[in-house]
UniProtKB/TrEMBL annotation:
This is Homoserine kinase. Residues 28-252 form the Aminoglycoside phosphotransferase domain. Transmembrane segments: none annotated. The keyword ATP-binding applies. It is an enzyme of class 2 (transferase).
Length: 315
């Protein structure tokens, strides 16, 4: 996160009265992340994370909570949402929807090697396979329609070259027919900071971009953060390892291999636009760590200029 909405010890204690999680011992704001307000919450029964939802539509919360609950009970290491005494996963605190989930152990690997990427690919595939039986759905709020709409909103803040690049990439993406690719529930944001490595392996957090979409797109979002160099180029060795790990559980189809460069470009565009949003239209936060939008622009340009290398990474 960030902490947009402060929470006092007294607020947290009052919230805990609606759960069977014991008494408050410690409450700490978390600076990482950018979408929600997050706090580490230690009680007499264990370690949890309290999230106040700042921009996630309230009606979508049952989908996210249900998904985490489903995955946590299907062998995926991820936060388990805690039920309130009234049976709901979501309550309210300081005017915001609020939920408590279990806190995972471990730290992100911010300088991953090929082994980390292989393990991450396998974790992503395991989530894709486990999600098949989750019987809820949610359209992608950051899909083509959003990309085109946001391009108009952001246009006055951007240079002509940036606007031309976004418009041209949006046209290119609109030409591709997604319906030919396997679709199901995607995590949508499996960046390095969303996998915490502990004794039990990699645990996944931050499901608030999850939705129904193309599975290969999820792999591309992951590759664009795990398998790139500081110079904003794809590292073929790490990309191959990510895909190899993924394919231990779900082999890619020929069509997916063919459309890999398209999805890498789409993922780079989504992240670039999202970061333009965070930078040019910031919300008022007490703690936030900024995201590098220029890096995402350079990554998109790299992908446009190196189609053949991208294709080879999925061969
Ligand atoms: N269940 C959890 N267990 C351990 N740490 C967590 C957990 N949930 C969140 N965190 C910590 O809080 C930080 C912020 O969480 P998260 O990434 O979900 O924030 P956000 O604002 O929702 O997301 P985003 O990354 O989309 O900006 C994480 O980087 C991690 O350090
Ligand atoms: N993972 C995204 C932020 C999502 O909130 C980024 O790094 O731009």
């Amino acid at each position: 996160m960030s902490v947009y909405t402060p929470v006092t010890d007294a607020d947290a204690s009052a919230l805990l009265e609606h759960y069977t999680l014991g008494e408050l011992e410690l409450l700490e704001g978390i600076a990482q992340g950018i979408e929600n307000s997050n706090f580490f919450l230690t009680t007499t029964t264990g370690r949890y994370v309290l999230t106040l939802f700042e921009s996630v539509p309230r009606e979508d919360l049952p989908f996210y909570m249900g998904l985490m609950d489903h995955l946590a009970t299907h062998d995926i290491l991820c936060p388990a949402p805690m039920k309130r005494d009234d049976g709901a996963f979501v309550g309210e605190l300081n005017g915001k929807a609020a939920a408590i989930v279990t806190r995972l152990e471990g730290e992100p690997h911010m300088h991953p090697d090929a082994d980390d990427c292989r393990a991450t690919g396998r974790i992503l595939a395991a989530m894709h396979v486990a999600s098949i039986e989750y019987d809820a759905g949610l359209a992608n709020a950051k899909g083509q329609e959003w990309r085109e709409h946001f391009a108009q909103v952001a246009a006055p803040r951007l240079s002509r070259a940036e606007n031309d690049l976004i418009a041209s990439e949006n046209r290119y993406q609109a030409m591709h027919d997604d319906s030919v690719l396997p679709q199901s529930i995607i995590h949508g944001d499996l960046f390095r900071d969303n996998v915490l490595w502990g004794e039990q392996g990699g645990g996944v957090i931050d499901f608030y971009f999850a939705c129904d979409d193309v599975l290969l797109y999820d792999l591309a979002i992951t590759a664009n953060d795990w398998c790139v160099t500081r110079e904003a180029a794809l590292d073929p060795a790490r990309a191959k390892a990510l895909i190899a790990g993924y394919e231990t559980l779900r082999p890619l189809t020929e069509l997916e291999r063919e459309l890999w460069p398209v999805m890498l470009r789409r993922a780079a565009l989504r992240t670039w636009l999202g970061r333009i949003g965070y930078n040019h239209f910031p919300r008022d936060s007490h703690m936030t760590i900024p995201k590098d939008h220029e890096f995402s622009r350079r990554l998109l340009v790299h992908h446009i200029e190196h189609a053949r290398e991208l294709q080879e990474s999925a061969a």
